[in-house]
Automatic annotation (TrEMBL), chains A, B:
Xref: InterPro entries: TR_Rrf2-type_CS, Tscrpt_reg_Rrf2, WH-like_DNA-bd_sf, WH_DNA-bd_sf
Keyword field contains DNA-binding: yes
UniProt entry keywords in alphabetical sequence: DNA-binding
Name by which UniProt lists this protein: Transcriptional regulator, BadM/Rrf2 family
Listed GO CC annotations: cytosol
Family matches, as Pfam families: Rrf2
Highest taxon listed in the record's lineage: Bacteria
Family annotation (NCBIfam families): rrf2_super
Keyword Methyltransferase tagged: no
Length: 138, 138
DNA sequence: CTATATCCTATAGTTTTTATAGGATTTATG
DNA sequence: CATAAATCCTATAAAAACTATAGGATATAG
């Protein structure tokens, strides 16, 4: 399961996308709207900003805003940033690979093969679906 | 990522399947072969037994053995048993469903839609692939 | 100058995961 | 029947990860 952190990030990004025309949005506004602890959300938005996904403005009239169009933000990007690996096993992770200590030859390991397929099927969706795809459909 | 518990379970099941002709297998043998803490493994095998996946025999000549053919044991079964939900969000989980508190209408939620697709793609593999599919290929 | 809002880093609280301990029970066998 | 071998069972400890909070630093609008 995705962590609360990542779930909150998605909800916050959705709010920012749906209010992109209103200029910078306050942390407190998002927190209230989406029922998230304001201080926890603050940390999350900061991480998104440091990753270049969000921009911010300080002081009166400040807040957070998207740095790029929703369709340019793949869901996989958010998950990897806040949750880490998407793969089910370290030995099939593309971004967080670790060699399997138990199995002698990954090329012949059946578990590795199946989990690689799971990873591919998951990534095909999460890398192609973007913030735009999770906005409320009207 | 899958927990160590689930990873150990897979390795133990593989060992049991590959030595099914040798009668009951000792916990200690599996632990040594796969480099798993013997006491931790004991708990895992017990859970698998209580779930009807393994059988056991006590006393001298005892040990654990598979209760059914490897091709009858889907990987999803093991994961759900030891790791819980396979879905990325509670609101798209088939076996551990929980209503989303933030979104007003799941039928219209884009996040729900995408994560449902991820779940389906993952389950298509994990419910159809079995212990037989992860045995070493020779 | 002041109020506002993010920035930054530390830490506290909670839950989950991983691992260990030790006695109870069952069974094979001499 | 006594003994050794093995799983059964439950509790608890140790470590790690996750969730949340705190409070001062910094930047900016007006």
């Amino acid at each position: 399961m995705l962590s609360k952190k990542t779930q909150y990030a998605f909800h916050a990004l959705i709010h920012l996308a749906e209010n992109a025309d209103k200029g910078p949005i306050l942390i407190s506004e998002i927190a209230q709207e989406k029922n998230i602890s304001i201080k926890f959300l603050e940390n999350i938005l900061l991480e998104l900003k440091n990753a270049g996904i969000l921009g911010s403005k300080k002081g009166k009239g400040g807040g957070y805003y998207l740095m790029r169009a929703p369709k340019e933000i793949p869901l996989a990007r958010i998950i990897r940033l806040l949750d880490g690996p998407i793969a089910l096993l370290p030995c099939v992770s593309l971004n967080y690979y670790e060699r399997c200590e138990t199995c002698k030859n990954e090329a012949v390991c059946g578990l590795n093969e199946v989990m690689s397929k799971v990873r591919d099927a998951t990534l095909k969706l999460l890398e192609n679906k973007t913030l735009k795809d999770i906005l409320t459909r009207n």
